[in-house]
Specification:
- With 422 residues, the protein is an alpha+beta fold.
- It contains 10 helices and 19 strands.
- The chain has one domain: 2-Layer Sandwich (Alpha-Beta Plaits), CATH 3.30.70.20.
- The longest helix is centred in the N-terminal third of the chain and has 11 residues.
- The relative contact order is 0.16.
- Bound molecules: iron/sulfur cluster (3 copies).
- One iron/sulfur cluster binds next to helix 1 and strand 7.
């Protein structure tokens, strides 16, 4: 094991290989508050990459209803239980060190999946804490859709007090997931064939189909269960980050770097994907006007999924406002309260950046804001709030303007003869 720095944990971490970092990293932000579980993302990936024989059970993109849903079933409950067992002294976060880019959420005090004692690894040949889901667990990708948590101990009963923010008593939410193209991938660490690699140009994690022999060590070791085994070819497969689009080779893009299929298809406009610049040591290089950099490192409204697992995932989530905080803190770490507070009382810049989601299929590398007039003043969740109609402008890889949009969205009113005409 060597030591690598995991900034999401605010500390050095054991990893089987030395850190190797791309120049820029594939990353994305999902705003859970907006997801409607339409599954357009899921189906766009399915119809592009996994429609063939032997791939029937594969959903590289999926959307599951939390807390009961999961694909494969119980994936997070199972890995969290294994992690808990590997941490008999407990796991906690020291938030006194939170702040700055090297430790934005504080210091994670506990073992990751790479630091579990050998006695907790099964089988003996494992290098990483994990497990192999059963065939049945892959069978029902959408199990428990829309099933809420109700009254404790009373099945099928809603909470009697009704629901109001800040936290609902009866709740669920939709968690959209793809491979996180992790900085320290569990799948890569576990592969005895060295068949898994991270592309130096964009950090997308791929399985070399020629090298793979189908040992399923990646399936076992990916804590997010995003490496999948294909029975008829006897090799493993995973999300490829739609790399031809990211490279600008999709004819639709006219040579421009394009967001992936699952991002482009998102009806709820919850998704933004891009490429962030990295320093030589793997830290995010300061890139103040990159929207992903802004959301993760400046506004800090977007948080990694289960950072305690240790893979330093490159997918970030704006947490749902209505969900009990202990559940969210376990899922997204200690930055949850600050992220929800900031999202609930957005400033001018955050409001403008949120308008960038899904206005275009091309990757946004930079944005600018042109200030507009005040539209109205009000009180928002108990605090004074002023809305300005600012214009946000998105730029592509070579500095060309991609589009511009305003904070106040245009309102289209159907003329009387066309109303109810569907
Ligand atoms: S999410 Fe899983 S499959 Fe994807 S890079 Fe991370 S460890 Fe590998
Ligand atoms: S990035 Fe591409 S390959 Fe990966 S889940 Fe989305 S659509 Fe599928
Ligand atoms: S397409 Fe967007 S809104 Fe629909 S389920 Fe997927 S992430 Fe959610």
């Amino acid at each position: 094991m060597t030591k690598v720095y995991n900034w999401q944990l605010g500390r050095d971490m054991d990893y089987p290989y030395e850190g190797a970092y791309p120049e820029q990293q594939f990353a994305f932000v999902f705003n859970i508050n907006r997801c409607i579980a339409c599954q357009s993302c899921t189906m766009s990936c399915k119809s592009t990459w996994t429609f063939s024989k032997g791939q029937e059970h594969m959903w590289w993109a999926n959307v599951e209803t939390k807390p009961y849903g999961g694909y494969p079933q119980w994936w997070d409950v199972k890995i969290l239980k294994l992690l808990e067992d590997a941490n008999p002294e407990g796991m906690s976060w020291d938030e006194s060190t939170a702040g700055g880019e090297a430790s934005p959420y504080g210091n994670y005090e506990g073992r990751t999946i790479f630091e579990a004692p050998p006695t907790s690894l099964f089988p003996d040949s494992s290098r990483v804490l994990g497990y192999l889901p059963s065939d049945e667990e892959w069978n029902s990708p959408n199990i428990y859709e829309d099933n809420p948590v109700g009254r404790k101990g009373e099945k099928g009963k809603y909470h009697p007090t009704g629901e109001s923010l800040p936290v609902h008593n009866t709740w669920f939410f939709y968690l959209a997931r793809i491979c996180n193209h992790c900085t320290y991938p569990g799948c890569l660490a576990a592969c005895p064939r060295k068949a898994i690699y991270k592309r130096p140009d964009d950090g997308i994690v791929l399985i070399d189909q020629e090298q793979c022999r189908g040992y399923r060590k990646c399936v076992e070791a990916c804590p997010y269960k995003k490496a999948m085994y294909r029975g008829n070819t006897r090799v493993s497969e995973k999300c490829i980050g739609c790399y031809p689009r990211v490279e600008g080779k999709d004819p639709e893009g006219g040579g421009q770097a394009m967001e992936t299929r699952c991002m482009a298809a998102c009806i709820g406009q919850i998704r933004m994907q891009g490429l962030v610049k990295l320093e030589e040591d793997g830290a995010w290089a300061e890139d103040r006007m990159n929207p992903l950099y802004y959301l993760v490192h400046v506004a800090k409204v977007a948080l990694p999924l289960y950072p305690q697992l240790g893979t330093q995932p490159n997918g970030y989530y704006i947490p749902p406002r209505w969900v009990p905080r202990p559940y969210l803190r376990q899922m997204f770490g200690p930055g949850v309260d600050r992220a929800i507070e900031r999202y609930s009382h957005p400033d001018r810049e955050l409001l403008a950046v949120l308008q960038l989601f899904r206005r275009d299929h091309r990757i946004i590398f930079r944005y600018e804001i042109e200030e507009g007039p005040e539209i109205y003043r009000t009180k928002l969740r108990g605090k004074p709030f002023t809305l300005y109609n600012d214009t946000v402008i998105a730029y592509g890889k070579n500095g060309e303007e991609l589009f511009r949009t305003t904070v106040e969205e245009p309102l289209h009113v159907r003329s009387a003869p066309l109303q109810n005409s569907i």
